[in-house]
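Just curious. Protein, please.
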Amino acid sequence: MAHGISHARQIEFWIARISDLPALPDVVHQTIKVVNNPNSSIRQISETLSQDPSLSTRVLRLANSSYYAIPGGAASIERAVTALGIDTVSQMVFTAAVFSQFDLQSKEPFDVRSFWKHSLGVAVASETIASEIGFRDTAMIYLAGLVHDIGKIAHFQIAKDEWLTVCEHAKRNNLTALESEKELGIVTHDHLGYELVRQWNLPLLIQEVVRSHHDPGIFSGATQINVNPQAVGIVYLANLLTHSLKFGSSGHVTVRNPSKEIVKRILGNEAALLHVARSTRTALQRTIPLFESMFDSPSSASA
């Protein structure tokens, strides 16, 4: 898209183009409702997933990866839920559905496989940090981490050449993708991602994480967060840790470190960062078989 037009016109253009992207399957929204209902049963989530055989097949493939190591394997969704729990299976449903919405073919300098590795890494890192600090909704924070950069892949899907220009500019000038977007006068991926997850009607917590995961205003009170500023902070830190640990790449290689003040606000004290970084590194290493099973599936290979 031409860079000379106003920001407002760019937003109008992108909202129109984003509305052309495919919606998430209904079963994803139904699964989120089941997970958010404390009275949900294994039978309910099994019946929900049975409405989408293709998605169920992908979920079972993930469930049978060495990452989960279910004794005897899982031949049915009910067996997977029994062995792993509703929260974990809901994460698999969401992950498989999101991956299936986009073209998986890379084009230099943007490696789609590496992008999804980073996204999955931030999901796992977010869940790890949430567990470390006692954040209750670890399942939802995983989902938020998974789609925190969804605006990048949406940009790539809609306007490949422009997104590749963003990546090339970032690489040449030692910038992050966000810094590159701003220098080029292009609508930023956090804004695009927010419009997409809002269109997908995902929970407000996820919408706010996608919109604000780069925004330092969340820590000073300058940005209004209506649902959970702690969730935004967790994904913010998880994103930086995943970059620093070089687990995948999301369109740039430049790493920025959080300020000491931000670390203290999220973790309580600076000293906790080393422990959290070690826990995150371990969790990311364990995630590799899960990531590989996602990209080795027949649906991925044919994309």
User: Anything to note?
Assistant: The chain has two domains: 7-18+106-296, 23-100.
